[in-house]
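Hi R.,

Here's the chain you asked about this morning:
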Amino acid sequence: MGIFDSLFTSADAMGPQEFVICIGFALLVGFIISAVYIFKNHHSDSLALTIALLPAIVSVVIMVVSGDIGAGIAVAGAFSLVRFRSAPGSAKEIVIIFLAMACGLLIGMGFVTYSLIFALVICLVIIACSTLNFGKVGSSGTEKYIKVTVPEDLDYTSEIDSVIEEYTDSMELVEVKSTNMGSMFRLSYKVKLKDDSKQRELIDRIRVRNGNLEVAVLRQEIENRGL
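And the predicted structure, written out as tokens:
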């Protein structure tokens, strides 16, 4: 049974020609998904390449296990989640990873057309949501993480919190960690800034209070990767 005789059914057998065609389709789908992920998203080059190649890798795994979905999902799932072994990914990254996996599974089972249609539909939905700022309607300010290093003897609840409150709509102290052999504390705040343009002013105000020690303002996505 040739692959083009069963575009909407699973192929029972696959020769060298069908194998190459499946890999080609998988790479095409992978690069489409990767391009959509790059569109309007902060990204790393390594993750963009990983997404582009993942459907081809997953489809080969499925073909190697001769269509055994249980074994294929277990192996391919383990491969795709290696990236998040030590640091969690953002929700968008996890969705894109599983989209690439699903397309690879479809291609590996012989559903080439379904895979392409599925990828295009989901990618169009992602582009539409990004263009329309879906999920951001009605939200004010920009969510950030602020990391502040303070001396051990500084009362940060009054000295630092009061400054941050002036520049934010909401503020939450999510972590207090000792550093430098216990002589300093590193504070991590999750905040929603009133005005992004006043970040430097906020940092300068904090440096006056913490003795000019380290202050960092991070995007939420960076913080979620453990930086």
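The chain is about 55% helix and 15% strand.

Let me know if you need anything else.
M.
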